[in-house]
Amino acid sequence: MKLKFLTLLCGLSFVATAFAADPELKETDKAMPPLGGRWAFVPATNADPALPRVLLIGDSISIGYRPFVIKALAGKANVDAWPHPLFQSEKLNQALKKILQHGPYDVVHVNLGLHSVAEGRIKPGTYEPLTREFIQIIRDTMPKAKIIWANTTQFTIKGKPTELDPVKNPTVLEHNRMAAKLMAELNIPVNDFYGLLINKLELGRGDTVHWTPPAYQILADKATASILQAFGQKAVAEWKDKNCETARIFETDGVECHRVDRAAGVRGQRRIRRRNSGR
């Protein structure tokens, strides 16, 4: 009995430590909080050792879509997460080495960049080599892991979520451009989070960077589809709209909308546009 109690106590201590905020991860900009979570490594709950493992790396945007990804991958993958406020730097790359000790992982999904926008944080000419080193650390640590890069979402004007910040958003675009070029060179797929939300800015919270649940669902659908594709599976997302009440979209195929007529017990089928093209 005493041994079981000590084992349980150790387990609870590990979980508490994992979810506790990391004192080394601080953001001095009060406008960039870890909305909805903490800056800390979060292990998968009730992990099944028979399932593949996924690591979500990101800023507070990843905190927003993480629950949707975890739900979509339930029974398909164990999802760990590392939300942090770091930007491309040696500090980030050294912290990454420690986080990867929780691996190995089958897929690593990376979505960071908002904290790199403030002037002076990244010295000219260092974004590309630091990002390259970041990717190389993952590859050196886990050669078999598949990496997915998701670009950075928009900076908008406070209180005006449909208006892009004329100073900070151009930096987002430039960093996304450099990252896209590097990922193409390294043969790493890119999830265009920026493109998914550029015509849906009304879904922003109005605090310059964060989003409402519908926007996070959009990002989660894309992240989930890319992760399952990395596993060699087809992603199925269920959604509703006025043209197809209950639809199941095969993201990797893209165009089939299947509607179920429950009254007649008949399954109809018709073609629609890809969901991520704005329908």
Write the SSE topology.
Layout: H1 2-19, E1 53-58, H2 60-72, E2 78-83, H3 90-99, E3 107-111, H4 127-141, E4 146-150, E5 156-157, E6 160-164, H5 169-186, E7 190-191, H6 193-197, H7 213-230, E8 236-241, E9 244-250, E10 256-261, E11 266-271
Parallel strand pairs: 1-2, 1-3, 3-4, 4-7
Antiparallel strand pairs: 5-6, 8-9, 10-11
Helix pairs in contact: 2-7, 3-4, 4-5
Structure, explained:
With 279 residues, the protein is α/β, with parallel strands linked by helices. The protein contains 7 helices and 11 strands. The protein has helices spanning 2-19, 60-72, 90-99, 127-141, 169-186, 193-197, 213-230; strands spanning 53-58, 78-83, 107-111, 146-150, 156-157, 160-164, 190-191, 236-241, 244-250, 256-261, 266-271. The chain has a 5-stranded parallel beta sheet. The chain has a two-stranded antiparallel ribbon with strand order 5-6. Helix 2 (60-72) packs across helix 7, helix 3 (90-99) packs parallel to helix 4 (127-141) and helix 4 (127-141) crosses helix 5 (169-186). The longest helix has 18 residues, at 2-19. It starts with a helix and ends in an 8-residue tail after the last strand. The model is unreliable at 1-21 and 237-279 (pLDDT under 50).
